[in-house]
Write a structure and sequence with these properties.
Oligomer: single chain
Number of domains: 2
Distance between the termini: 57 Å
Radius of gyration: 26 Å
Pfam family, one: DUP
Order of helices and strands: HHHHHHHHHHHHHHHHHHHH
Largest sheet: none
Length: 378
């Protein structure tokens, strides 16, 4: 009887989550001009903004009654500075509100079975927006700006915390009790991710890439330094170029050793930024294709990594991730990228250059790493 009661509650909860399926999905990204105007609207409707607005009344009274102008002047400047913290307060309130509704969030995931594609999260984002507003958990109908925000919220509030705690049985039990549907939601999500992973081999067999005509940048550029400079001195890296030129100008009259050290540090920061942008520019499906290419590469030595680099350079260019076929300089660069942005996640389980824990990729990272080890030992 108890199991039947729990099952009835689950069915009731899941059936109630589909009330927007028959309607056209409208998200704040379709209503507001951009994310900035949405953020301003949300801040204007927040309780923090009303408190900030009411705080001007005592400050104004203080100006009229005080004989010393310095203290009300400082209070006025403090209030002006506080306005810049209102969006941050709103963001913290949004995070706190969602943390209290993880059960409903999990129900939506179970009902809609989303994967790594952002489009799969549109229905969930719209349902959560309506749920929050109707039940008066949020003051507006625009809790999530778009599907991407909803997907990222799932990653930060459910996927990553649960995955980091699952090795500890006591924490797992506590976490499961606090959010009854979380395990089912994660099972649904990982099932969809696994389906997508299995499609990559099929797509690879159906759309083979002729690598004979693909050239690596190491075959085009005389030095890797030249390739790096070409990447840095682009419009995307214009702020860093201006900083470098400013550093050159400001340190011109300093001692030579200081000038060399300062310019060297500036250049290293630019290099680090380049490495970070490469990892962040890849979406989840691009990372899965990268891991699949490594796993299915027959020869994973120096020549094998060159083949992976060629294939990924062509793929990322066709997917418009990179503006040319020069994402990887050579096989060594491709291998180091794998070790830095993927293998490093398994050892540290902390956010690295890619900007995410990429929890759903952990099994496939191990598979790719295992294939590299097997080929090396053979």
């Amino acid at each position: 009887m108890e199991d039947a009661k729990v099952e009835d509650e689950k069915n009731t909860g899941l059936s109630s989550s589909g009330y927007l399926e028959s309607q056209k999905i409208v998200l704040p990204k379709d209503v507001f001009r951009n994310g900035f105007t949405w953020s301003c609207y949300e801040t204007f409707k927040s309780l923090a903004f009303r408190i900030w607005l009411l705080s001007w009344l005592p400050v104004t009274t203080w100006w009229k009654m005080s004989s010393n102008w310095i203290y009300p002047f400082l209070a006025t400047n403090l209030l002006i500075l506080c306005v810049f913290f209102l969006p941050l307060i709103q963001m913290l309130c949004r995070k706190r509100t969602l943390s209290k509704q993880l059960t409903q969030f999990s129900k939506e995931i179970i009902a809609n079975s989303p994967g790594t594609d952002v489009e799969n999260w549109e229905t969930i984002a719209a349902n959560i927006n309506s749920y929050m507003y109707v039940n008066k958990f949020w003051k507006t109908k625009y809790f999530f700006y778009g599907a991407w925000n909803c997907q990222e919220a799932f990653r930060l509030t459910i996927l990553e915390p649960f995955s980091l705690k699952k090795d500890d049985d006591s924490k797992l039990k506590s976490f499961k009790d606090s959010v009854p549907y979380i395990e089912e939601a994660l099972e649904v999500y990982f099932t969809e991710v696994d389906k997508q992973w299995k499609l990559f081999d099929t797509d690879k067999a159906r759309n083979p890439v002729d690598l004979d005509e693909v050239q690596l940048p190491k075959e085009t550029y005389r030095f890797k330094f030249t390739w790096v400079l070409k990447r840095i001195f682009t419009f995307q890296f214009l702020p860093w170029v201006l900083c470098f030129l400013d550093a050159t100008y400001t340190t011109w009259y300093n001692p030579l050793l200081f000038r060399i050290s300062y310019l060297g540090c500036t250049f290293l920061v630019s290099m680090q930024t380049f490495q970070n942008i490469r990892g962040k520019s890849m979406k989840m499906e691009h990372k899965m294709q990268y891991l699949s290419t490594i796993t299915n590469e027959q020869e994973i030595g120096a020549n094998g990594w060159d083949q992976v680099a060629k294939r990924m350079n062509r793929y990322l260019f066709r997917q418009k991730v990179w503006k040319n076929e020069e994402f990887f300089f050579d096989g060594i660069d491709c291998q180091r990228f794998f070790e830095r942005n993927f293998v490093g996640l398994l050892s540290s389980k902390r956010v690295t250059y890619s900007g995410s824990l990429s929890v759903e990729l952990w099994p496939y990272i191990r598979e790719a790493q295992s294939s590299c080890t097997d080929e090396s030992s053979a």
